[in-house]
Each structure stands twice: as C-alpha cells, then as structure tokens.
Specification:
Elements (H helix, E strand, L loop, with lengths): L28 E4 L3 E5 L9 E5 L14 H18 L4 E6 L10 E4 L14 E2 L3 H11 L2 E5 L5 E4 L3 H14 L10 H7 L1 H18 L10 H4 L11
Antiparallel strand pairs: 1-2, 2-3, 3-5, 4-5, 4-7, 6-8, 7-8
Amino acid sequence: MGLEQQPALDAPRPREDCAFCVRQDLHNILTESQSFFLLADHAPLIEGHILLVPKEHYSCYGALIPELEEEFLWMKARVAEFLSQTYRPPVFFEHGIFRQTVYHAHLHCFPFGPIQLDLSAYHPHPAPNQEDLREWHAQQGQYFYFEQRVGEGQLFLPEEVRYFSFLGALRKEATATQDAWRPSDERRVNGRPKIESLLQKWREFAQEYNTDESRPGQTARAQHEGDGDDGDRD
C-alpha cells in the first residue's frame, strides 16, 4: 500500500479533549494561516520559544498530509526568519508522539543560535523533507526529530536512553541558553515576561513584514496581522 493510501494520512477531525484543537482555549497566538497556528509556548524554555501547530488533529508531523506541506514549510520559514532577525538562528525539535505531553503535532522552534552538535553517536536517520517523516511514521511509527540547521532534519529512534543523552548534549552545546533549562512548572510560573516580550517583538516584525505577496494558505487575519494575542486568558 502506497503512503498516499495510508489511513494515518487522512485529514483528521478536531477533538474536544485536545488542548490544541479547541480554538477558544489557545493562548498567546502570534498569527495563523488557514491550517496552522503559531503560538508562544506557555512555559518557554527561552524567550522566543514558539510552537508551530496544525489546526487539525494530527498526531505528529509525520502524519501531516502532503497537501499541507507547502503551507507548513512557508510558516516554518516565517518563524526562522523572525527568530534569526530578532533573537538567534533557530533549531527545530519535535516529539513524534514519543514523550509527547499534548498528543497533537507541534514543532518546537528555539532561538538557540548556531550550534554544531555532533549527532553521530545517536545514529540519526537523515530527514531533509516531509516525505521522509511520512515514510518513517508510516513504517516505524514514533520518533523524535531535530533540525539544527535549516533543511538538515534528523530522525531518531524513540528510545529513552538515546533521547536523554541527546538532550544532555544539546543542553551543553546551547551555551547561550544555560539559564533556560528549568523545570516546566517553574518556567510556566515565571515565563510571562518572556511571552509578553515575544508578543511585542512579533507585532513589530509583522508590521514590517506585511506586504501583498502571495502566502500559501493565508487567511485575512494573517494577511493583516500585527496585533498578536495578548494572552490575557492565561
């Protein structure tokens, strides 16, 4: 059976019990397109920590249908441009179901800056495009994903030892963010100033960016963005 016939790649319906599916429960929205949200993470690891989230209930980005790939990549490039201009170049990370806390696809975007992490010890599988994620997910299921330079994605087997060893190495390599590695509860309590600063910087970026260029899947809201959700519902 070809990948295009896999049931996992069918567009799913939103779920009422999912934190990312209920629109009115989402906080700190930076912008949205027809099929995706950009959110400021509610417990930011570092200022500029952004989530790229599909509106439909996909379990991971390996399950994302090909028809949404162009729009997804456009939104991802938008994040990379913003973070590079405003903070530092980003890295991207995804729990491909493995160790998810919300069982809905979301790509973490961290402005860690240029890093040169040697991944060979973790036996990565190159995944330079979305088709690689779809193929892995269809054949092997769970994974975790890391992209330290744009277009150089890597997939890893979902093994606890491998995962925590990788996180330890990433923590050492991202030397500019050593004060960021706090427990989630602490980051949630103390993260509001980082979120507010991110929201303001996104508004400024969006105002400068707002042009009439063609944008895949853009809604009127996204085309005329610049205000950002102020997150008062937190």
